[in-house]
Amino acid sequence: MFDFFIKGGIAGMSIVMLSGIGAIIWSIISTAKFSKKGFITKRHLDAILFLGSFSFFIGILWQGIGLSEVLSIIQGYPNISPEAIAAGLRVSMISAITGAILFAISAIFWICLRYLNNKKAEI
Fold first, then answer.
1. pLDDT at 56 over 90
2. CA of 55: how far to CAs of 14, 36, 73, 98, 105, in Å?
3. Which of 109, 122, 10 is nearest to 65 (CA)?
4. What predicted TM-score, i.e. pTM, was given to this entire model?
5. How far apart, in whole angstroms, are the C-alpha atoms of residue 74 and residue 21?
6. Which of 49, 53, 56, 52 is CA-nearest to residue 95?
7. Which whole number is the average pLDDT over 87-108?
8. Where are the transmembrane segments (predicted)?
């Protein structure tokens, strides 16, 4: 996993991981708060969704930066092999896939907490 972190680019992957893990940690805190108080505020739900989607957005942005770098290198070498192009595309997708996975986890928390919060409000 650390190899993917390095290949995906330390700067971009750090932001993706921090915001994604922040969303998961905030989800756990919100779940604990919900179990203690019986409700959570809309601000807590919005923070979970924002941090998860920010992780996904930064992953896609970092992929665009990686693709731009790969394409600029391809321009300099007209006889580049298809294997090298495929390897560059694969590496550029690491940050986007990581952001998407972290977003999916935070979205699951968000959906569950929103459902529980709304169900509790109806009672």
1. yes
2. 10, 28, 27, 8, 11
3. 10
4. 0.87
5. 34
6. 56
7. 91
8. 6-26, 47-65, 85-113
The torsion of the CA quartet 73, 78, 82, 83, rounded to 10 degrees, works out to: -50
57 Cα distance to chain centroid: 7
Give the pLDDT confidence of 68-85 residue by residue, as tens digits: 888 888 888 888 888 888
- Mean pLDDT, range 101-113, rounded to an integer: 95
| d(C-alpha 5, C-alpha 114), whole Å | 32
Which is it for the CA torsion 68, 69, 75, 78, positive or negative? negative
Predicted confidence (pLDDT) at residue 107 exceeds the cutoff of 80: yes
Q: Which residues of 3-25 are buried (b: 16+ CB within 10 A; e: fewer)?
A: eebebbbeebbebbbebbebbbe
Distance CA 56, CA 20 (A): 8
| R_g (Cα) of the chain, nearest Å | 19
